[in-house]
Structures are given as C-alpha cells and as structure tokens.
Amino acid sequence: MAETRFGKAIGQALADAMRDDPDVVLFGEDVAVPGGPFGVTRGLLDAFGPERVRDTPISEATIVGAAVGAAIGGLKPVVEIMFMDFCGIAMDAIVNQAAKARFMFGGQCSVPMVLRTPHGAGVGAGPQHSQCLEAWFAHIPGLRVVCPSNAADAYGLLRTAIDHPDPVIFVENKSLYAAKGDLPENAGPIPLGRLRVAREGADVTVVAYGAAVGTALTAADALAADGVSAEVLDLRSIQPWDEAGVLASLAKTHRLVVVHEAVEAFGVGAEIAARMADVGFDELDAPIVRVGAPFMPVAFAPNVEAAYLPGAAQVAAAVRRTLE
Amino acid sequence: MARNAKGGDAASAADRDVELLELYRRMLIVRRAEERLSQMFADGEVPGFIHLSIGQEAVPVGVCAALRLEDTLASNHRGHGHALAKGLDLERFFLEVMGRAEGVCGGRGGSMHIADMGVGMLGANGIVGAGLPIAAGSALAHQVRRTGGVAVAFFGDGAMAEGTLHETLNLAALWHLPMLFVCEDNGWGEFSPTSRQFTGDLIALAGAFGIDAATVDGNDVAAVARAASKVVAAARDGCPQVLRCVTNRVHGHYEGDPQRYRDPADLETLPNHDPLRRCAAKLGADDVAKVTAEVEDRIAAAVAAARAGTEPDIARARADVYSPCEAAHG
Predict the structure, then answer these.
(1) What CATH number has the domain spanning A2-183?
(2) What is the DSSP letter of A97?
(3) Complex ipTM, two decimals?
(4) What is this structure's pTM?
C-alpha cells in the first residue's frame, strides 16, 4: 500500500496499460512534451516514445474523431480533452460517431477508446473551464461514463476503461488531482457499474460520485455527531450506474439523498431519484432529496464560486429533511 | 455549368481495354444499383432518405482501383459508390438500404450509415465532414500498427467549409499520416452552389499545409485511376495527398429533390459528361453489351434476394448498443 496522489494514480494506470498492451496510444493537447496541463501524463513520452504518446494541435473535434478511427482500426486510444467544457467542440465525434458506431454498423466493430477530461469548479477557472457536464454523456446510448472519487478507484477504473471495448468518458474532478490516497501495490481493474460503500450507515443513504463523495463523507461525520447514521455510496460509474446497489441500501435505510457538483436540474441525481421513486417506492419513508449546484454558470469571483459549490452543510441539511 | 477538369494524359496502361472494361463494369454496378434504388425509393420500397451519386461513379471506382483490401476509407452521406467500389457485397447492400435484418449493418444504418469493416469501408456518414478525422485515426492505426495500409477520406466540396477538413489536413501533415483526401467536387453543397459557400481553393489550402494536391477530370475513370495510383503510393509512404476530382451531381441532394435551384439548360448538358458514356465510347460495343447484361442480372438477383430479407427486431438492435462482454468488463 503506497500513498499516491489522485493525478499520479491516473498516470500510473496509463503507464501500466501502455506497458501491458502495445495498442494503447495516448494523444491530446500538451500531453506529451509538457506532460499534461495537470502533470498527469508526465514521463509517459520518455517511457513509451513519440509514436505512442503524441501532442496534438488544438483541434478537439479532430482529436476525438481520430480516436474513433484509430479505435476501429485496432488501437486503444486514450485521448485527453484539457477541460470538460471543451467537449462542446468535439460533441459530434463523441455523440454521433463514437457512441453510435457499434450500433449503426450492426455490431461489426467496437470503439475501444477513452476520453479523459477534467471537470469541476473550485480553482478559479471561471464559467468556461469549470463545468460538470457528465449528464450530457450519460444521456447518450453507447457511451460509458466514469467518475472516480479517490486515487485507488481512479487507477482501477481507468485500467478497466482502457481495456473496455466501448467508448468511455473518464471524468476527473480537477480539485482532486493533488488529493492523496492509498494505492494498493497489486491494484487491478475495477468493474464499471458497481458502486462502493464509502461509509456504512443505517438511517439514510447518500449517493455521490467524484469529488462529491468527499463532501458527503464530511457531512456524514457531522451527522454522526448528532446521532444520525448516514450510509455514503460512491457510484464510481454513472453510465452504467449500480441501480441494484442503491436499491439495496435504500431497502436498509428507507431514505435517500443524491449529491453531485453538477447543477441539480436535469442531472444525474434526477435519473437516480426517478428510478428509486419507481423501483424503490415501497421502501421510501421520505421524499428523495437532491443536492447539486444552483442553475447558473460557475462565476469567476472566488466568493461566488465558493457559494456555488454544494457543501457538506447542504448535504447535512438535505439529510435532515429526509428525517423530518 | 457541367464540370470536367482537363485530363489530357496520353493513354497508358490503365487505358488498356481489358482494364478499362473492368472499371466500366464497376461503375455500371454503382449506376444500376442507384438507378434501381431510385425506382424502389419512388415505389416506397426503400424507406428514409437516400442520396444518389449518379454522375460521380468514376471517382470511387477510379480511386478504389488503386486500393488494397486492407486499405480503409471513410465516406459521407453520398456513399453508395464508395461502399460498392471498395467491395461491399451487392446483396447485403440492398438488404441494408431496405432496412433488413440480413443487411450488412443489420438494418441499423441504412443508406446513410452503411459500412463493411471486412472490406475496410468504415462507414457512410450522416454528418458532413465527420469522416475526415475518422480516416485520419484509421491512418494513425495503419501507421502505428505497421499494416502498410492507407486510409482514404471521401468528401464533397460541400465539406470544404467544415472545420474538420482544415483540422485533419493539419494533423495528417504534422503526423505524416498515410492518408488520401479525395474531394468529389460536384459544385453543389446540399441546395446551394459551392460558389456561394466557399471562397477558398482546395489545392491552395492543401498547399498551405505542405500537402501535395492535384486536380483530375472526375468523369474520366481511367484518369482518376491513374492519378489515384500515384497519390495512393505517395500516401502509403507517409506523404498525405489531396486529390480533387471534378464531377457532376445529376440527381438532387436527396432523392425526390426537384432541384428547382438548378438551371435546366445546365442539367441537359450533363449526359455529355457522363463517366459511363465517356468510358463506353472507348470500349467495343459487344463488350459493353455483355457487361451490361451481366451487371443487370447481378442487380436483379441482388434485389430479388433482398426482397426476401426479414425485418429486424428491436431486442436484437438494443443488444448492440454496448459490447456483449458485460460480465468481463462490467
């Protein structure tokens, strides 16, 4: 067991995947010589050479389109879109090409590519470098969407994503890159669609993913001091998401709160709440409560950005609502 | 105005009758297949939208004559010629365009998204310009995996204003990709002439990226085949190439488009530039008649077989949204 930073664990997963499989290639803006805007890919160019680790021009649409062609051609490309906000330029390649190729060509091919991209506010990056847009992709049949909360999961989920035959959108909260966590020495792949119980509890289920898992755990600590036992579930992957796992926890606690940093309206939380209101109706003793960002862009001013981010106090207040 | 580019090369090996006859035969398969589709569409036998490439057959046939099986191509919405010239089976073609379960894509793609990975046909595409980066990625796979293959992007002049063309030219030049850009310049982008859509010049544009570019008479199949053989060889060596083929779109943007925006006098001149008519003029009448009878028999047989195809079911379609290895990959 070694203590590793979140960003470093991602770099380790990339290195191990490239070592194990010569078809894994890496390309994106500034990923090779500069080592990535957050240093995640540092050292990979030296380790694997310029044929497999490539800087691209600033051409997001073509980066992702080329990944689709490369994946159909037998490579396992891992591309990076520097900020999730920039996916807007690449949406055709993601939505109309990567997501649909297997289906519309009658299962003739897979598109085994990974698109890594950072989301999240809290670093003063402003309206166009801070959004959490994962719900866009979770809404598209054919895409997998993964969002780890800690270093060990980032490693294991990325190893799975790279070997996965379907296109995977791998979302990294940029506020987590420097976070330290334990990475087991023999860490292996972690399957998609299986949640992790981050904290066991009996009174209420709190579902979260990515950096919001930390927020939920902080809230659970505060609630415990008041005698409320919250079970915190880390979804790990959003598409597919572990419906059975959430339902099992709900059957124990009978109360549900869903937390994410993305804006609350029309988000991942809405899907989870709607499904649990359906398949979990008989288990519910209280309304399902969502916690997400307000319906507004992220502001630059530090105080407004801080007020925008859903915090532990909001999660605790949501939990208390379910207990009223 | 009907369009031909000058193609004054002296007759060469590719002009020899037997080879020319084979090129003619391949063009005629595309022509007769599309004429048949036009009729079947009018009869309600083919659903959805179709975009015919009648008048442009010399381009896919001439270019694909220079390709190997392992070479790949990304196509566009007007892709029947690309699919058939690359070797897609005629019967599975009709089955697909008719939306049948036995179609090459299980009836999921239809005309606008037809693909056959087995012959390196990476897909027609409903999004203008989207095939260009896909071809670049395929070229990257050829390069990294040392397949010796070339990737071709077929695009129309209507795609010249799409950013993906400009981005992909740059990437292909930067990475020395084994890639060929083939522009089927028919003068029209959807319902508007290219002159009202694009102020640039493709040859100059390629030159700005340091990419070799040539223009060929896209209605002269032998000229296209000769030019293709040269540019494919250069692309195979890691020098991306642009080949602009000047040709004509005879039918509308989509089948059923009455083309009220076109000058009737201009449409009347198009048969003079017909690539099949021009090719046939260089062949013996007996050869042409024999090939015509053979192709018509093949089309009739393929259509008859396709009519016996079955309707796909939604459960089978849903099963192909994701890979089947759920247990292994979760």
Answers:
(1) 3.40.50.970
(2) I
(3) 0.96
(4) 0.96
